[in-house]
Each structure stands twice: as C-alpha cells, then as structure tokens.
Design a protein that fits this description.
Length: 230
Amino acid sequence: MNVIFPKIIITFVFSFYLIIFSTQAQNNQISYFYSHLPPYEYIDTNNQAAGLGIEHLKKIFSHANLFVNFQYYSIKRGVNLLHQGSVDFASVISPDAKIYKKFIVSQRPIYTITLGVLRLENTPPISQITQLNKQPFATLKETTFLFNNLTKDLQQKNRYDVKDFTQGERLIKAHKLPYFLIYDQPKKRIASTLTFDILLKNPVYLIISKQHPQAKQLMAIINKSMNKHN
C-alpha cells in the first residue's frame, strides 16, 4: 500500500496537469513570456505588452487562431516558467545548439532584430562588434542573456550595465562612455546629437520548452500557420 499510493497520486497529478493544458489548447488560449527589450518588447505606460516584436507576434498568433496572454517576467524567472510549462512560448535570437537541445524552435523566424551601438556624432564609428573589445561600452542589464549568442567574441571586461535606455543615453551624451550597445531604437527616441551604427542583423524565432506537455502540438500549429501566411 505504501508503494502503490504515491504512484496513484503522481499519476493523478500528471493527468490533471495534462488536462489543464489540453483545455487551454481547445480554447485556443496560450501564453507568451517577454522581458525588457525595447523597442521590440516592453511594458508601455498602460502596463500592456508593446513593441515592434509584440506586434509581429500578435499577427502570428492571430493567423494561427490562438489567443495570447502576454506575461512579463525577468529573463531568469521566465526561462524557469518555460521549463515548468507554466508559460507556453518565448522568443530567442539566433538560436544555437544549446537552445535546440532544450527547446523546440519555430521553422521560420518571426522577425529580424538589429544590434548596434548608439554614439555621439563626433565619436568614431564602428562596424564590427569586436571593436568594442578595446572600448568601454554600456548595455541594458536585462538583455545580457540575449546578447550571449550574438556577442561570443566580445570581451565583457569593458561592459557597464545600465537599468534602462534613458540611463545609457545620458551616459553617452555626458561623454561618460563612448558607446551604448543596444537593439535598434526608433529614430524618434534618439537625440539629434546621437547616431546609431548597425553591427549585426539576426533572426528571431519562437521557442517552446521540450518539457512542455504539448510542445510538439503547439509548435506544429505555429509552423503550419507561418508556412501558410509567409
């Protein structure tokens, strides 16, 4: 009895867990984790998901007849929730072998992201990311995880983390740092004395954890829809 009873409990919990996700799928309800990655993903003044990437995602999920609940978390917490199956989807830039080992990745990219440096107009321009190995530069603290795949040749000793775009822009304008490594900002947000050098353009893909009980089914819906509408 002591052996059988725990097995019954485990089986019941696992079955109940699958039923929850099955019900969500039948109701076409899914969730997407995002973090602070302006101008692609961020929370607007109304505490709603906003950004260029969010708009792309809304179209993709709409074409797939899925109703998405955007959920904002820190990157560390969001990744943990993905593996727990508490959140369905997220996105990743230029996925590497480590990502493919733990996640199912969409067949097509959802959009392309631009990485570059913000600088004063009279600061020497740069064209390669490795040039920052000899220069101090700022980055958004929250996007450090997302830089990993793109900046493997970049030494981190010269990096200074800032909490938001405004702080980074202020450091550049005050001549405290020469470069601010960021994802492309809308022109209207860049002061007239600043300019943006493009260093990399990379595709962004949807991902779902392989530990998710409906990973294959949900990604199949996305792939079928994207193949149809692209």
